[in-house]
Every structure is written in C-alpha cells, then in structure tokens.
TrEMBL record:
Bilayer topology term: Peripheral membrane protein
InterPro entries (alphabetical): AAA+_ATPase (IPR003593), ABC_carbohydrate_import_ATPase (IPR050107), ABC_transporter-like_ATP-bd (IPR003439), ABC_transporter-like_CS (IPR017871), P-loop_NTPase (IPR027417)
Domain ABC transporter: 6-246
Protein name, entry field: Sugar ABC transporter ATP-binding protein
UniProt-annotated location(s): Cell membrane
Keyword field contains Nucleotide-binding: yes
C-alpha cells in the first residue's frame, strides 16, 4: 500500500461537555478527491479545521507523507501545503482581487535600498493564476466587494491554489452558486486532481462529488459512519448512512 499524502488517525475533539469528534480517521492520496458528507453537527468542519491548523485536536495524530505533523496555527498548515477555502470565502471586501490573493504573501522589490510592494508583479501573477485555473474575474484591480458570488469563489480558489498547495479543502464550494459557476468549480477541481493536488470537499450537494470525486466519507455526531467509492454507491445508500448513522455493509456487533 502506498503512503498517503494525508493521514489523520483517531482524531478527537471536545468543546466543554460536547464531543465534536471521537476517534475519527482519514486518509487521502495525492490527486485524490474526497467528499466529506453528513448532516449538520456531524463534525466535518471541525475535522477539517484541525487539518488546516485552525483548531487543535485533543488527541490523535496527523501525518503528511507518512511523517507526523503538528500545526499550531493555519500558517503552519499552509507551509505544509494545506489550504482551506471557507464557505464565506474569508476575503477582505474592500481590498482588490490581487491584494486578497497576496495578503500575507506580498511580492516586494527594492528601490534605493527600500523595500516596497511590487503591485505590477502581483497583478501579473494574479492574472496568470486565473488563466491556469480556467477562472475569470472582470479585473484583478477591482475590490472584491464589486464581484459576484461566483467570482469571489474564483478569488478564494486562486488564493488557495496559487502557492504550491498539495491539499485544498473546500467547505461547501458550490453553495449559493448558479449552474455556470458550479460547473466552473467542478472543472477547477478536475484540473487540480490532474495536477496531483488532493481535494477534500465538504458538501451537502452529493451530485458535485459524484461528478468529480473519487470517494465519500460519511460522518454523524462526530464519528465516522463509513466510506464509499463513488463508483460503488448511490444517493439512497449515502442518505441512509447520513440519516441512520450506520453502515448497512458492516456486520452488526452483538452486545
């Protein structure tokens, strides 16, 4: 068995008296697309925030290329090649497209020994990112608040994938988008997959994962219910697992 790009082993997390995750494990190979599904409060976002460095697990471990990794904050996860696109995109509305993409990663140059922002270089690079992803925005110099929801999604994707990401986590990437924008997001995921970038999609839209994914992972109340290959399941099978919290393919354990 090949070493996975990402492995999470027995991850647990509590918030006071509430158990958000209980010994959840996950593995994903480079270029794989995993759909993480379940009802509200299943623990999906908590698990991904731990992987992205936004939360710390109470117990369990994360491995990258088979080696233990600890992320004290999102920047540490980002340095390891893990990016997360949040459902609200986490963009700064007043800043331009380019400024949002390079926030915290600005390109600079020196003039008379003084370091200054190289706005021209960042604008050019931003345009190159959109072209490589097959995404479009009216202009990279526009403030993000002037863009449509689909265009803001494009900015968030470009920011997450433009700096040698190895894993991109997308939280409800097609929520509140129209059909053309949904199709562009799907095409972008396919491009990432072909380039060897792994993708985890948190979504209630099973059809998106059927369209571009490889595998489903079903969670309920902080626990892993079961997993399915996309080619070996259907909506009814997955909905049953989400609703009941049980995998019908697993034998019942006598008490």
């Amino acid at each position: 068995m090949t070493t996975p790009l990402i492995e999470m082993r027995n991850i647990s997390k509590t918030f006071g008296a509430v158990t958000a995750l209980s010994k959840v494990s996950l593995r994903l190979e480079a270029g794989g697309v995993l759909g993480l599904i379940g009802d509200n409060a299943a623990g999906k976002s908590t698990l991904m925030k731990i992987l992205a460095g936004a939360l710390r697990a109470d117990s369990g471990e994360i491995l990258i290329d088979g080696k233990p990794a600890t992320f004290a904050h999102p920047i540490a996860a980002r340095d390891a090649g893990i990016e997360m696109i949040y459902q609200d995109f986490a963009l700064v509305p007043e800043l331009t497209v380019t400024q949002n993409i390079f926030l915290g990663r600005e390109i600079t140059r020196r003039i008379a020994g003084v370091k200054v922002l190289d706005r021209s270089a960042m604008n050019v690079r931003a345009k190159e990112m959109f072209a490589a992803l097959g995404l479009r925005v009216p202009a990279v110099t526009l403030p993000v608040q002037a863009l449509s929801g689909g265009q803001q999604q494009a900015v968030a994707i470009a920011r997450a994938t433009g700096f040698e990401a190895r894993l991109v986590i997308m939280d409800e990437p097609t929520a509140n988008l129209g059909a053309p924008a949904i199709e562009r997001v799907r095409e972008t995921i396919t491009r990432l997959k072909k380039s060897g970038v792994a993708v985890i999609i948190i979504s209630h839209r099973l059809e998106d994962i059927f369209a571009v994914g490889d595998r489903f992972m079903v969670m309920k109340q902080g626990q892993l219910v079961g997993e399915r290959e996309v080619h070996d399941t259907d909506n009814a099978d997955l909905v049953e697992m989400i609703v009941t919290g049980a995998d019908p393919r697993k034998p019942l354990v006598a008490v």
